[in-house]
Model the fold of this input.
Amino acid sequence: MHIAVIGTGYVGLVTGTCFAEFGVNVTCVDNDEAKITDLKNGRIPIYEPGLEELVKKNVDQGRLNFTTDIAEGVKQALVVFIAVGTPPKSDGSADLSYVEEVGKGIAASMDGYKVVVTKSTVPVGTGERLNKIIKKANPEAEFDIASNPEFLREGSAIEDFLRPDRVVIGTESEQAVAILRDLYRPLYLNETPFVLTNVPTAELIKYASNAFLATKISFINEMANLCEVIGGDVHVVARGMGLDGRIGPKFLHAGPGYGGSCFPKDTLALVKIASDNGQPTKIVQAAVEANDIQKRRALDKVIKAAGGSLKGKTVALLGLSFKPNTDDFRDAPAQIVARGVIEGGGCVRAFDPAAMEQARLELGTEGITYCEDSYDAVTGSDMMVVITEWNQFRLLNLEKCKELLNEAVLVDLRNIYQPDHARSLGFEYYCVGRV
Done:
């Protein structure tokens, strides 16, 4: 089988590469000539553990190809995946202009039956919209529409694709189901559950999943805030909750709020979808509002640790990406903290193992020094703030950090250190939901 993946962003590149790893012939298409040139030369535009090696392997073995010519990809393919961006518009709804543009390009390139699959996260009704676009552009086209949402965690995307919790396929066509089942056949060996449904349901499953996980994060953050008032320990609260099989332990880690490319965008989009259909999602809306508050509370902790004013203070930020093992800086809590420090009259010394360039593009250089490593960041700073729980931050030599800091102040927004230990070393220690 030969497939095409339109879009070589995070989802498209991982999807195409992993299908190639299954033994499928894959053509990845993107209209960004510079990106395609880089990919052909082995340069990967995103940070994702294991991806660079997997791309090189499958390119060398001839199963993975890159092009800017959509016709080249579509004409060879039986299945065409759409994996382009759906960024939020000002009202929170998903911008489908890239999806629609690709739909027209696919229609113009069809030379036989195709299964056209939305892999991008798209609002309910997009499949039908795409169906009409292709039929209008090419009335003679033979095709079926399917929805096959992705559930890839940044930093664990390869593992998530090759060993997924489930595969969701939404389509009205038995032929399309048979083709997609065959494409995913290697996963049957792992007994991966398959969820077969119609297109609108598949489209909603993705939004519902992300909104639920975002709600779990906002919920435990609110419990953490309550713990700070009553003298509780959110770690113990989360463990006590997570041992209940109906709840589970995942996504019950208190912190500075969620960020990244999915949760902020998808929760807002679901709120808009529900509102447009006369069924407001008050719980999801509350999760969004709680997350915005939590990011602000993270900055408030830094201000409190600075004695109430950041003017003239130098703050070491350890971690910039919204989570470990990614360079994704979109909607990261570090954005709020960094900007807040600078606006408050302070300056930032920052370090992140992967997201320095993305942060530099977003924040610029005024008021921020991008450092070589963690110890470089804390040198001469008035406090150290852990925002992202990269593994290399978990076992920092705190005694060395104390010597390098102007003041022994540690704001641990990910609770990676034990309060008693940090305080025993002489640190003024601030955390989330613990005393």
